[in-house]
Each structure stands twice: as structure tokens, then as C-alpha cells.
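Worked example 2:
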Amino acid sequence: MGGDGARHYRGSDPLTGEPVEFWVRDGVVSATPVAEAETAVDGGWILPGLVDAHNHVGIAPGLGVDIEQARGFAYADARAGTLLIREVGSPLDTHPLDDDPACPRFIRSGKHIARPKRYLRDYGIDLDDPDELAAEVARQAEAGDGWVKIVGDWIDREVGDLAPLWTRGQIEAAVEVAHRHGARITAHVFGTDALVDLIAAGVDCIEHGTGLTDDLIGQMAQRSIALVPTMIQVENFPGIADGADRFPTYAAHMRALHAGAPKVFEAAREAGVRVFAGTDAGGFVEHGRIVDEIEALAAVGLGAAGAIDAASTGARRWLGADVLDDGHRADFVVYAENPCEDLGVLRHPVAVVSTGRHIV
């Protein structure tokens, strides 16, 4: 079903069981009935478009992505129901996709900020002088949509293991600058050592977080620091370790982080850390796998409803994005059955509606 005519939708919210009814005209939700609107859905279960809170449409392994390739990746995510992407670092400017109503909405973090030889080559900004971190955060805050991404740890080849990239003072200055520019700051972290300063400095979110300890988890909960664990990316840690024969300490560390990850993430949930869904698509992970991430989150204690909320309404509210209120962008997914009772339902939407257009 396509076109721009007004439509009427009626169903239920799977997270609350409450009735849902609204109209769509010109790509926008209306709580007020629209005359002569066609009823497109009468029954079923309606969610705001799913959220992938850690995604890289502008990245693919082994190639420089152009905007049309990025569009294809975005379409794959949208067909799976993902209609909001927090793009946490991209060498490609994906702003041209904003004019495509079939693409998800993007909330961008600018480019990754790292140091030379301390992250994947050509992915982001490499600072020769780490004291320039705060200044670069200011630049990326201006380029993004309210977020900035720094690389908190990566393999240090001289050490032979994961190691922090920044001092606490450098991170504190970066956090202060990000917040002054109206942006939140998130950090890629695998191990434990870098987390100590990042959490103490007050970053807003941790990506991956496999090295979290009980004490650090408690600090995250107290400071309302969110966690996006990218569980289906963590499944690639053993493969990363297998390719790191020159660095046996690092390889063993990555395997240990992989083995301990489920308990770490369950402990974070139990402590009250806000956990949100992100696939890390764009590197080792294919686009369109948001349901795999939801299922993985459900398995570490979020349960079906909690995991769906972490990839829909809850995530949208965390990001300050539209839900299905009057005047909001009409991005939503319709299911024939309640996905809170069977997560497999998420793989078979009866409708995916992006900016009011049925793309599935």
C-alpha cells in the first residue's frame, strides 16, 4: 500500500495492552479523526518503529561506502522494522538519506574519535595530540545530531592488550564540552580499565561494556549512564581473538570477555542500568538484524517486553525521538499477533510504515 492519502490505524500496544488509534496524513500522526481517511489497519499490534541504537550505515568491511550503498543498508534495516538509527560513528556523511522517506530517521554522532593506530583504519578522526580531544568533540558535536562517539579502549600493540586511549582529565574536558554543545557523549569500550575513568567522568552511554564489574555497574546505575551491549557483535569476539595470534594476551582477553558477557549484562539489568538495543551493523554484523538483538537481550533477563521496549518506545524516549503522539512522524510497525508473547512475531510484520508510507 503506498501513496500519500490519509489513513486510519486501530490496534493495541503490545507493551501496555492499551488500545491504539490514530490517523496519518502527510507523513504525520494525528490524534484527531481525518475525514475520508481509509482504514488501513483495524486490529493487530502496533509499535513505534524499532530502534537500532548502535548502527553504522556508512561502514562496511573492506570498502569505502558510497551514499547509494548506505541507502541499501538503511533499506535492509527499515524492512526489518528499524525506523530509527543512532549512527554512532561513520566516515560517510549520511545526511543525504534524510530526504528519503523510505529510510529510517538518523540520530548521528559524527565520526569516531580515536588516536593513531588505536582503532580501525580510516574509520574516524585520529588525534596525534590526545589533549585535543575536547576540541574535536566540539567539532563532532556540531556535525552530529546530539551525540558524540569516542573510542575508549582498543588494542595497544606495544602493550599487547586492550588499553585506554585517554586520561581522566581529557575525558572530563570532553564530557564538559559535549554537554555545553547540547550533545551527549558515548564511548566504545571492551575491557575494564578504560571504564573506570569514563564512568567517573560522566559519559552518557557505554557501547559494548563487556568489561563491566559489579562496582562499575553500580556507578552506572547511580549516574544514569546507559548501556548498549551490542550482544550479537559480542558473539564475534572469539573470531576476533582467532585472528590475533600475534597478541596472545589480547586474544585470551577477548575470549574471556565473550564468555563473561551474559552475566555482565544480566547484572547491569538487575542493578537498574538502562539497557538499549543496538546491533553494531556495518562491520562484522549485517544490517537488518534488530530482532536477533532483541532476542539476545530477552535472554539476559530483560524478558520479551523489556527487550522490545529497549528497541522501541523506551529507546525512542531515551533518544528524545518521536513515538506515536499527535504531530509526530508516522513511523511504526504492525504485527498480527502480540510480539510480547512470542518474539518470533517480530520477524513477520504485516506492515512497516515509514513517514506514513507502507514500505512492507
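The radius of gyration is 20 Å. The longest strand covers residues 38-48.
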